Amino acid sequence: MRKRREAVVSYLFLLPWLGVLIVFTLYPFIYGIAISFTNYDFASITFAGLDNYKAAFTNSLFHTALRNTLIYAVFLIPLNIVFSLFIAYAIHARAMWFQSFVKGAFYLPILVNQVSTVMVWRWIFNPSYGVITTLFKALGLKTIDWLSSPPTAYVVIILMVLSFSVAQPIILFTAAMASIPPSYSEAAQIDGATGRQVFFRVTLPLLKPTLLFVLVTTTIGTLQIFVVPYLLTGGGPYNSTMPLLLLLYNSAFILGKYGYAAAIGMIVFVIAAVIAAIQFKLTVSDVQY
Amino acid sequence: MVILCIAFSTLPLLIMVIGGFKHDYALFKIPPDLNPLKDMTLKCYEIAFTRINLLLGMRNSLIASGGGVVILLCICSTAGYVFAKKNFPLKSFLFSIVIATMIMPAQILMVPKYLVADTLGLTNKLIGLILTSIGPSFGIFLCKQFAQTIPDELLEAAQMDGSGELNTFLRIVLPILVPALAALSIFSFMGLWNDYLWAFIFLGSKSKQTLPVVISNLTTMQSAQAGPRFAAGTVAFMPMLVIFIFCQKYFISGITVGAVKG
Asked: How close does chain B come to A29, measured CA to CA in Å?
C-alpha cells in the first residue's frame, strides 16, 4: 500500500518532465525514424522504403556535405583538445585570479552570440577594408579573398568555431588537473623525469575520463556546426563549405523534403553514435595508480 | 603565448563594442579607425534600433529565455528529487532515458520536432519555442546529485510531522537545490538567449523573432554598414556580460559538476 502510494506520488512529480519528454522528444524520435522511410514533402506522404537513404548515399551534394563535415572534424577536434590541454596546463598551477581571468577571456566569445561574432569576423576578413587585409598589405603579402575559395574559407570557419569551443574543455581540464595530487608529479620528478615526461606519463593518463568526455562532446559538437558556415558563406562557394546540418536544414525547410531530411538526420545520428562508441572503447582503460 | 590566444579571442568583442560607437567613415578608413578616444557617436545605435526591431527582439528573447528557465527549473527539480529519493517501477529505465537524451545530437530531432509542433499549432509562437528548446536531461542529472545529499531522516521527520508531499518538496528539498538551480538557470538562460538555429527555424513572423534572429536580419540588409550591426551585437551581449560578471563561480561549478568525478 505504501509502495503504491510512493509510486503514484513519484509519477505525479515526474509529470512535467514526462509531458515534455514524450511530446517533444520521444514521439518526434520515433516519428523521425518513421518519416525517414517516406516521401514526405509539402503536399503528400507516401511510403518509400529505403529510397531516401539510397538517395543520400548516391547524392553528390550529400557526399560534399559529408566531406566538409569530416574536414571540419579532422581539424577541429585535435586542435581543440591540444590547445585546451596546453592552456590548461599552462595555467593550472597559477593563482586563482589568473585562472579565472584566462577562463573568462576564452568564455567571452560564447557570451557574444554567434551571430554577432560572425559579423565582426566577416568585417575583419573583408578583402577590401578588413583589418587582416590591411595587415597583409603592411607586411607586403598578397591580399587574399578569404571567403571565396575553399582552403582559406575553411581556415576562417575553423578559427571561428575554435574560438567558441575551447572554453569548456579548458575549464574541465584545469579542474581535472587540479584534482591530481601534486605528490604524483613530485614522485616522478624525484625519479628523474623531465617536465615533458611528467606531462605525458603522469598527468595525461590521469586525465583520461575528462579527455573522453571532451572528445565525445567536441565530436558531437562538430557534427552540429551550422551557424558559422550559414552566416559566413551560406555554404558556398558552390557548396564547398556546407556542413551536414546545413544540408539537412536546406532539404527540410527550404526544399520541403522532410522525408529526405529525416533520413539525413538519422544517418548523422548513427555516425555520432558509432564515433562515440569507438572513442569510448579506445580511451577507457584502467589507470594504474 | 597565452596572452596571444586571449587577445585573439577577445579582439572581435572589442571591435564590436567600440565599433558600435563609430561613424561610418571611421570604419571604412584603411586602416579602420578604432581609437576609443576619438569621435564616438550614438548614431549607429539609433540606426540599429529603428532599422530593425531591436526592442521587440529583446522583449521576445526575454520572454523566451526567462520562460524557458522557469519551466526548466520546474521540470528538473521535480524529476531530480524523485530520482534521488523515491522508488517506483521503471525507475532505472526512465533514468537511462535521461542519460540517452543527454548524448543525443539535436539533428535527428529537428525535423520531426518541428512537424509535431506544427500539428499542435505551436510553431511561430514563443511558448512553442520554449517547450521545444529546453533540454532538461543535464538539469535532472544535476538536481538528482544535489537531492541525494538530503538526509533521509530529514524527509521522514517532515512526514511524521504531517507534512504532505508537496509541502516537503517546497519547504525542504527546493532550498537545498538552490545552488544547482542557480547554475542551471544561468546556463539555460544564456543558451536560450543566444540560440540562433532553432529560433530561426521555428519562428516565422517578424513580430515573434528573438534577438539573434533580429540581428541577423540586419546582416542581410545593406551590406555596407558595419557600425549598426556592431551596435546591435553589443546590445545583445550586455545582459550576458552582466550575468557573467556576477555569477562567475556558478559558471565554473555548473560545467564541472557533471563531468569531473569527485
From this structure: 6
For B260, which of A9, A179, A248 is closest by C-beta distance?
A179
* Distance separating alpha carbons of residues A198 and B73, to the nearest angstrom: 44
- Residues 105 through 124 of chain A touching chain B, CB cutoff 8 Å: 105-121, 123-124
How many C-beta atoms lie closer than 10 Å to residue B20's C-beta?
25
Nearest CA distance, B27 vs chain A (angstrom): 9
**Grid coordinates representing A19?**
509531458
Other C-beta atoms lying within 10 Å of the C-beta of residue B24: 16
* B93 Cβ under 8 Å from any chain A Cβ: no
- Distance in angstroms (rounded) separating the CA atoms of residues A87 and A81: 10
For A198-222, what is each residue's pLDDT tens digit? 777 777 878 888 888 888 888 888 8
CA dihedral A242, A244, A245, A246 (to 10 degrees): 30
pLDDT at position A287 is: 44
Mean pLDDT in residue range B230-235: 76
What are the residues facing B40 on neighbouring strands? Answer: B22
For B:52-91, CB contacts with A below 8 A are 71, 74-76, 78-79, 81-82, 86-89, 91
A 165-204 residues inside an 8 A Cβ radius of B = 166, 168, 171-172, 175-176, 179
Q: Which ipTM was obtained for this model?
A: 0.73
B169/chain A closest Cα distance in angstroms: 10
Report CB contact under 8 Å: B9, A105: yes
Rounded distance, CA A76 to CA B144, Å? 33
Written as nine digits, the cell of A75 is 581539424
| Contact residues for B73 (Cβ-Cβ < 8 A; gap 6+) | B139, B181, B184, B185
End-to-end Cα distance, chain B:
32
pLDDT digits (tens, 9 = 90+) for A17-34: 888 888 888 888 888 888
Residue numbers of B between 155 and 194 with CB closer than 8 Å to A = 165, 169, 190, 193-194
Query: For residue A234, is it left (φ>0), alpha (ψ between -120 and 50) or beta?
Result: left
**Phi, then psi, of B12 in degrees rounded to 5:** -60, -35
What does the alpha-carbon distance between residue B186 and residue A181 come to, in Å, rounded to a whole number?
A: 31
Residue for grid cell 510512493: A6
